[in-house]
Amino acid sequence: MSPGDPLVFSPKPDSCGTLFILDQHESGLRLFRSFDWNDGLFDVTWSENNEHVLVTCSGDGSLQLWDTAKATGPLQVYKEHTQEVYSVDWSQTRGEQLVVSGSWDQTIKLWDPTVGKSLCTFRGHESIIYSTIWSPHIPGCFASASGDQTLRIWDMKASGVRIVVPAHQADILSCDWCKYNENLLVTGAIDCSLRGWDLRNVQQPVFELLGHTYAIRRVKFSPFHASVLASCSYDFTVRFWNFSKPNPLLETVEHHTEFTCGLDFSLQSPTQVADCAWDETIKIYDPVCLTMPA
């Protein structure tokens, strides 16, 4: 296997949800452990203070707390949402260990994993909530994206919405915070566009990235490059962008045969990316644009 070849893992298809814990090796991906759940699992987030603990969310309206050091689980189940939970994220700032979840029931819930019930519920969205993401900079602050075509910024301490951004004229399926600018977020929608938003002035996007031909399912900022982000789409592609350049599209990766639905940058390697698709494969690889000198 050459350094540029992707590592691929093909999970066994299952009618219910399965959480796979994978180890990466030079020869490929190895299944370390798997956990089954009785409904589809839509999102997963790692604990920021325990490398063995993570939370998933499910189509049955519940969240599950797992410990990868234990062969059985989950350790705890939180069941308050009344419809599918589509997004879950663990707080990244020091001084708090909190999880935020977004559901098709149009509510956002805040959780302390050591407590068996939610701490509070946030209401305001008028449609399905697809994405809930903590700010990596501001304690107690998170963003949400919804089918009501808005990006919203919330303050945990105020128990209410701070900013409402009519970001697209279409369902917004994903949002993310820039790791280098506390005021910058990006949204991805079913209108095939990515838009950047400066929270100090949300009248117009600060950038718009066009090129995808179907809905954008997930967007992520790079943790190593201030103006680089990646997006994956139902057009089967993953695209890498530098929004500071006149020609922002850096690379288009086409290695899936179905909708690409998951995507993230490595926190350890500045060149490594993982993605997954409805073709039941997970790929870990180094895009050419991230291995070239800036």
TrEMBL record:
Any one GO BP annotation for this protein: protein import into peroxisome matrix
Classification via SMART domains: WD40
Entry's localization field: Cytoplasm, Cytosol; Peroxisome matrix
Segments traversing the membrane: none
Gene Ontology molecular function, alphabetical: peroxisome matrix targeting signal-2 binding
InterPro entries in the cross-refs: PEX7, WD40/YVTN_repeat-like_dom_sf, WD40_PAC1, WD40_repeat_CS, WD40_repeat_dom_sf, WD40_rpt
Gene Ontology CC terms, in alphabetical order: cytosol; peroxisomal matrix
WD repeat ranges, renumbered to this chain: 78-121, 122-157, 165-201, 209-251
Keyword terms: Cytoplasm, Peroxisome, Protein transport, Repeat, Transport, WD repeat
Domain of life of the native organism: Eukaryota
Keyword Protein transport listed: yes
PANTHER family per record: PEROXISOMAL TARGETING SIGNAL 2 RECEPTOR
Family according to the record: Belongs to the WD repeat peroxin-7 family.
Name of this protein: Peroxin-7
